[in-house]
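Hello forum,

I keep getting stuck at the same step: I have a sequence, I want structure tokens, and every attempt I make locally crashes halfway through. Rather than fight my setup again tonight, could one of you with a working pipeline run this one for me? It's a single chain of 279 residues.
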Amino acid sequence: MTSWRTRASAALCCAATALPGLLAAQAVPAQSELHLLAADASDGRALWVNPAGLARRGEASVGAFVLGDDSGGAGWRLAQGGLQLATRGFAFGWQRDQFRSGRSGTTYVLAAGFGDARLALGAARRWYRRATGNTGGWDVGLHAAVASAIDVAAVWRDIGSPLVGDSVLEETLVAGAGFTALGRVRLSGEWHAATSGLVGRKVRAALTLDVGRGLALSATSDFSSNARLRGVALAVQLWRRTSRFALAGREPGAPDGARQLGLTAMSIAPPPTRRFGGR
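Reply #2:
Ran it on my machine without issues. Output:
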């Protein structure tokens, strides 16, 4: 007789094939993930992208973010809000998502990064709270500056493949690198692959231009054979001695995907020494 675990697994696989939009909606990336890559994150936002980045500055910050989406022309709505607090390599994050189905979900993240701008390691624990149950997973990350203008990063995400709502978050390996030219132009890229067989999922590429006076413009493209993973994001970032702002919008690759527009605002203490190498 087929066990209930086998039947449940089969049903979940069928649902994942038939309802990819619903399943993906149960685990929504934070606003910073629209445009930041693993090799680029270097402040409090790193807890969402690469926890090793928390050690690159060692500053204290508090931030808030909101994200709106327009799915299938249904109209814009507030889909996400969150807070983050970071100090000397340690960070805590809270994220609240409101799905179009009427359901909502909360994610908590506790992260730590150790090292400095040359070499850093980090780990993050995520707790997912959904109406269907609670679960959690781990991320571990690495960042290393291998030359004055070149750095590399790696992140192992969703260790344990947590079941979030109706969706299994597959363990993913992210390998990335960044190159800064002329002190103003930043090229970044990363490869995402499922750890089960190292099957490639998508490739991300980003170009960031520091136009001066603390203002930076960036474009990020996601490439994949799966249209639901494709997309293009544009971002404007403003860096000041005691504050940072990032406005980012993303156009989906799938016709029925959701357009997204989000804003992050951060207060910094003490004033950091600005380095273009990390955004």
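The chain has one domain: 4-269. If your local run keeps crashing, start a new thread with the error log.
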